[in-house]
Each structure stands twice: as C-alpha cells, then as structure tokens.
Amino acid sequence: MARLPDPTGSLSPAAQALYDELVGWRGRIDGMYRSLLNHPELARRVSDLGTFLRFGGGTLPAAVRELVILWLARQVGAAYEWVKHEPPARAAGLSDPVIAALRAGREPPGLDETQQGSLVVARCVVESRSIPPDLQERLMGLVGMEGLIELVVLVGFYRMIAGVIFAFDVPLPEGEDAPF
Fold it and tell me: What are the two backbone dihedrals, phi and then psi, of residue 58, each rounded to the nearest 5 degrees?
C-alpha cells in the first residue's frame, strides 16, 4: 500500500496555517490534501490553483466546471474526485439524469451548447489532441478565451489530482461508497 502518513498531527506553523486555510475554503481536509501536506510548499501551490479554479477568480460557469470534473472522474475511474464533486455538481444545477448518465459512462442528456462543447474539449485534452478550430471558435464565443484556457487547465488539474489519488491510495472520505 502506497499511502502516505497523515502529517496533520505534526505540522510546522506554516503548514498548519495552510491546513487552516484549506479547511476555510473546503470545509474539511481529508485524503488528497492530507497526502500533499507531506510537502507543504507543493500542497500550497496545488491548492492555489485548485482554489482559483473552484472558488475564486475562475470564469467558467459552475455547472460547466462541475460537469467536466464529474466527466473526467468517471473517465479515469477516480471515485474520490466523484464523491467530492457530486454535491457541488448538484448545487450547480446538474440534474439527476445528467449525473446518472455520467456515472454510467454515457453521454448525458439535455446539455446546452456550452456544456456539450466543454465535454468535447475535455476529451481532446484527455486524448492529447488539438481542439478542432470550429469548436474552439464557438466555445470562445460562449465562454471567452480565458474560459477556454481555464477549461483546458481544469481538465489537466483534475487529471493530476487523480494521479495523486491513485499513486498514494487515497481512500474515499469516511462514510462514502464507491460510485462506480
């Protein structure tokens, strides 16, 4: 088992301040960030990007962001990401049929043009291929250039997080069942 120790009982003052900041943004810290806190400076930098993408400054609509995160979680089999993001996806307005389709690995019903295009862009990122020019133009018209760039970085960020989760056998949060 590759699990890293939970360092929260012996954090330096700077790492404790980071932990408190993470709890402030996320409500509680479990698995993935506890693993990263074994390298506080890296945890801070990862957290800064994650916080920007999810909580502060991002331009993507919450429903698009959470749709893409759930889609990616299902594509790579990251149950931890799924259980952490299903509640925010519901809060952002994703419907039960959309969430059920994503969980089953099917195309979700009733998506708008921005959501559909965002999933195609996410597939391009996962498959390491270029975004078709017509889709890029259309999506830039819907979410702007910053939104398009943010979308690509969002997919890459959550792929990285999935890598941390898998590499260090990060368990599901207590009380959660595997979604797939």
Answer: -65, 150
Q: Residue 150 corresponds to which tokens in the numbers above? A: 């943010």
How would you write the pLDDT of the chain (180 residues) with one tens digit per residue? 689 999 999 999 989 999 999 898 888 888 889 999 999 999 999 999 999 999 877 899 999 999 999 999 999 999 999 999 999 999 999 999 999 999 999 999 999 999 999 999 999 999 999 999 999 999 999 999 999 999 999 999 999 999 999 999 999 999 999 999
Yes or no: say if 115 and 125 are a contact pair by the CB < 8 Å rule. Answer: no
Type of residue at 144:
G
- Whether the CB-CB separation of 22 and 33 falls below 8 Å is answered with yes
Q: What are phi and psi of 72, to 5 degrees?
A: -65, -45
